[in-house]
Amino acid sequence: MSNTLIYKYPKIFKLENGKKLRNLEIAYQTYGKLNSDKSNVIWVCHALTANADVFDWWKGLFGNKALFNPDEHFIVCANILGSHYGTTSPLSINPVNGLPYYLSFPEFTIRDLSALHQLLAQHLGITKINTLLGSSLGGQQALEWTLAAQTEIEHLILVATNAVHSSWGIAFNESQRLAIAADRTFFANKPDGGQKGLVAARSMALLSYRTYDAYAETQVESNNDKLRDFRAASYQSYQGEKLIKRFNAYSYWYLTRAMDSHNVGRGRKSVTDALQHVKAKTLVVGIENDFLFPLTEQEFLAKHIPDAELSVIKCAYGHDGFLIETDKLTKIVGNFLKENSRNKILKLQHIA
């Protein structure tokens, strides 16, 4: 069973840009129990519009009888800063004036998201993590957390992510923000502000998450005489309407800006030098036809992270493949962890 909790950080939280947040709250869920030597921690960093309930959105990889299950592991997933699933966000109350922040919320970066994970880990008394994993925006967080070197991380699993957010990815995010800003209600400072713009933004995003082949397979028309009401068109509208029922435009706006900020080389010698400092045993997983985070980005990670392994998933769904092809991902991750466990035992036997 999961346990949903809120950690209220008692101090002022300083963001990377120097701005400060008071009354910071972090929503998180845990599954299973921490063992006596605290060696069974599995920590998940979620993607853009997901939440802390990893058993819901990553079924197959996580679950009662899955590879990562509560009988063997202590699983933690925290809702990220800016997301409205419980952690402090633009819809939270600004203690200075007693009103929701909306567009007065301070901008934040991937490193700030990583810093929140570290705060929560300290609160939970976790000093070492058996496996830290994240995909897409979650992978960016996991990588930054590893580089912060404040927590001992044995295994790092990076799925469909990158070391620096690309110009291509930033362009997609900016186009989505332009769509949101074109909706005048976005500037009205109300919880449902910018909803129509968010529908359009989500439609744009979906095109970067999927592929030509995926649409050809799932949205093809059987009627050659049709002139309107095409399946692909209704699908885009449906996905946008689906998102606004569970998310808000302000969180989306800020989180895409945070994604744009991702660059492990910022303030460090270089991107490649930063990656050389990853000490965890690392598995990088790419999606063969990922349109948004192309395979070249995962190849770059695997090339520059010491002794990293690279695995590629073949599927028709592009970036969304990490959520759809869970059977393939589970096999890849499971084999990686088994092999490293075997090598660890052999090393100990050799030392003995």
UniProtKB/TrEMBL annotation:
Q: Name one Pfam family in it.
A: Abhydrolase_1
Residue intervals of the AB hydrolase-1 domain: 41-322
Primary subcellular site in the record, as a coarse category: cytoplasm
Q: Which residues does the entry assign to the active site, renumbered to this chain?
A: 136 (nucleophile), 290, 319
Enzyme Commission code(s) on record = 2.3.1.31
The annotated pathway is:
Amino-acid biosynthesis; L-methionine biosynthesis via de novo pathway; O-acetyl-L-homoserine from L-homoserine: step 1/1
UniProt cross-references to SUPFAM superfamilies, sorted A to Z: alpha/beta-Hydrolases
- Name the reaction it catalyses: L-homoserine + acetyl-CoA = O-acetyl-L-homoserine + CoA
Entry's Gene3D superfamilies? alpha/beta hydrolase (3.40.50.1820)
The protein's assembly and partners: Homodimer.
Main role? Transfers an acetyl group from acetyl-CoA to L-homoserine, forming acetyl-L-homoserine.
Q: Which family does it belong to?
A: Belongs to the AB hydrolase superfamily. MetX family.
- Which protein, by its recorded name, is this? Homoserine O-acetyltransferase
Gene that this polypeptide is encoded by: metX
